[in-house]
Design brief:
This protein has a 23-stranded antiparallel sheet that branches. 22% of the residues lie in helices and 49% in strands. It is globular and about 100 Å long. It is of the alpha+beta class. This is DUF945 family protein.
């Protein structure tokens, strides 16, 4: 009898504990979702808002709207439904992309909205999500673009995200011309501080096959790879990239193979953050439709400051070879921007040839091409036994082995 009396209090305590845990799970989910929306807004690249929000201790649902800060080229609705559990919250929904500037005749034919699902663990603040892309067909007059589907997986928590995406074959048909590419795989990691003051992003793109067919040209490429690393620290923004072109074949011969590597550095970090904050503030104030002149006047000081540390582009490695053409490129070089008297430059006037010439005069650098192929020396009017090509850039003027740029290259100046 005494045991039977204990059953009711025990059950009541268990029910109360479950209800508290269930409510807490819903509150933690809403807190993390609110924080994620706030961080997307602080990123300064997107306009983010929520609608049709219903918060509950068993289920929640709503719509997150994403759009660029300026313009109306596209917007994306993320529809979500959350079922809260004691240990994890299960989510699912759809993506509804909108592109008002694309005519109805150019939009996807028979495309189902992409579906996604996720698991959120509130006590660890981790998220695992997957997005399935159904096959898509876009048609524009005689052109047809076909995507055979794909899958995107995301894992992480606020401040450290990992992404893996795989897109099946992409094919573009335009009469007798056809381009096919894929599968394409992207592996990415994005880590940042809570306020976004610092961040690191590593991306690795891998394209397994690429083929071009036309009456004039046909080639195939395999195992193309691009690795990039972007770092924003207290001083500067740095972007480093390495491209491996694998093997590009024309018929049975190798048209191109090799690697390229480069780094862009010394972009002022504080100016970049200020520029992002200015754009974000203008969007929030509803000035997105401001005319180009007033927007340019506002952004010009930050754009100039972005260049204040004399940005530098390093070509760390250029190692390309074309056995089919008997050509090779083996070299390295650097370009540096002169940041003195930046007030004399107008970033908003680059449509003017005079302004572009003023910017070119700020560029200095050099590039050394070793093991120069004789056919290149002949084309440049150099002795056939020339083994090195020294390209110097002085105040925007290019000289090759101490000589002015030959007429055949003058139009590329």
């Amino acid at each position: 009898m005494r045991k039977e009396r204990l059953i009711v209090p025990v059950l009541a305590v268990l029910a109360l504990a479950w209800a508290v845990a269930q409510t807490l799970a819903g509150l933690l989910f809403e807190r993390e979702l609110t924080r994620l929306v706030a961080e997307l807004r602080q990123g300064g690249e997107l306009s983010v808002r929520r609608s049709d929000v219903e918060r509950g201790w068993l289920t929640s649902h709503g719509v997150i709207h994403l759009a660029p800060l300026f313009g109306n080229a596209w917007h994306l609705d993320v529809v979500y439904r959350a079922r809260h559990g004691v240990l994890e919250t299960r989510l699912d929904g759809t993506l509804r992309p909108h592109a008002p500037e694309i005519e109805p005749a150019q939009r996807a034919v028979g495309a189902a909205p992409p579906r996604w699902d996720a698991h959120f663990r509130p006590y660890a603040s981790t998220l695992d999500a997957t997005l399935e892309l159904a096959p898509l067909v876009f048609q524009q007059q005689a052109r047809t673009l076909t995507l055979q589907g794909g899958r995107v997986a995301i894992h992480g928590d606020v401040g450290d995200w990992r992404l893996r995406a795989r897109l099946a074959e992409l094919r573009l048909d335009d009469g007798e011309t056809r381009l096919s590419a894929g599968p394409l795989v992207l592996e990415s990691r994005f880590a940042y501080t809570q306020d976004g003051f610092h961040f690191n992003q590593d991306d690795h793109w891998r394209l397994q096959n690429l083929a071009w067919r036309s009456p004039e040209l046909a080639f195939d490429a395999a195992e193309l790879s691009l690795k990039t690393r972007t770092v924003l620290d207290a001083e500067e923004l740095r972007l480093k990239a390495r491209l491996d072109v694998g093997e590009v074949l024309s018929g049975d011969e190798v048209l191109l193979t090799g690697e390229l590597a480069g780094e862009l550095s010394r972009l002022d970090a504080d100016a970049l953050r200020e520029l992002s904050a200015l754009l974000h503030r203008e969007a929030l104030l509803g000035h997105a439709e401001a005319d180009d002149h007033s927007l340019g006047e506002m952004l010009t000081p930050a754009l100039r400051e972005l260049l204040s540390d004399s940005p530098r582009l390093d070509i760390l490695e250029a190692d390309l070879e074309s056995p089919m053409l008997g050509l090779s490129l083996d070299g390295e070089g650097v370009l540096v921007f002169d940041a003195r008297d930046l007030d004399a430059l107008d970033p908003m006037a680059l449509k003017s040839e005079a302004e572009r010439a003023a910017w070119r005069e700020r560029v200095d650098g050099d590039f050394l091409w070793q093991h120069l192929p004789p056919v290149i020396a002949l084309g440049l009017g150099l002795p056939l036994d020339t083994r090195e090509l020294q390209v110097d850039v002085v105040r925007g003027t290019v000289r090759i082995n101490g000589r002015p740029l030959p007429p055949v290259l003058e139009r590329w100046r």
